[in-house]
Design a protein that fits this description.
Strand content: under 5%
Radius of gyration: 18 Å
Helix content: over 70%
Number of strands: 0
Order of helices and strands: HHHHHHHH
Number of domains: 1
Largest sheet: none
Low-confidence stretches: none
Length: 154
């Protein structure tokens, strides 16, 4: 179990890298990066959205690319905390990393509050937010003894 506690941070790092990768895709491809999102939210493909309102489509594209840039920075900040503090057993890093499951689950809750278009499955972030949030929470719980035992640094 000690090895699992010591190496669990790799799972959190994988989530950070995944977030950054999705962000890079959003920055580069904009709306086209994940056509399932507008389909799940409003029941329209990106091309249907653009035909209905090209100005609104441009705003959506800009917002999505900005959100992608935020994902890149979230992934980079997570990686920095994990590499430089979490893996060294600094307790503040463990507490700080609880922002990851909180953020991931809040993305899902936000998507559910916005709603799902009739006849469509939920947008992928609604599902992946819950999955990644729970996964991150489990990793943090598994790694907790490492931070709160005799060896933990404050």
């Amino acid at each position: 179990m000690d090895g699992l506690q010591r190496n669990a941070w790799w799972g959190l790092l994988a989530i950070g890298v995944l977030a950054a990768a999705f962000g890079i895709g959003d920055v580069i491809n904009g709306v086209a990066n994940d056509p399932a999102v507008p389909l799940g939210v409003v029941g329209m493909t990106p091309s249907e959205l653009e035909a209905e309102g090209p100005h609104a489509y441009r705003m959506y594209d800009l917002t999505l690319r900005g959100g992608g840039l935020s994902l890149v920075f979230i992934g980079a900040l997570m990686a920095a905390i994990l590499v430089f503090a979490f893996r060294r057993g600094q307790r503040w890093a463990w507490w700080t990393m609880w922002l990851l499951p909180a953020w991931a689950i809040s993305v899902s809750v936000g998507g559910l509050l916005i709603g799902v278009a009739p006849g469509q499955p939920p947008a992928p972030p609604v599902v992946s937010g819950f999955v990644l949030g729970i996964f991150a929470g489990v990793i943090l719980l598994v790694s907790a003894p490492r931070f709160f035992g005799n060896r933990a640094a404050t």
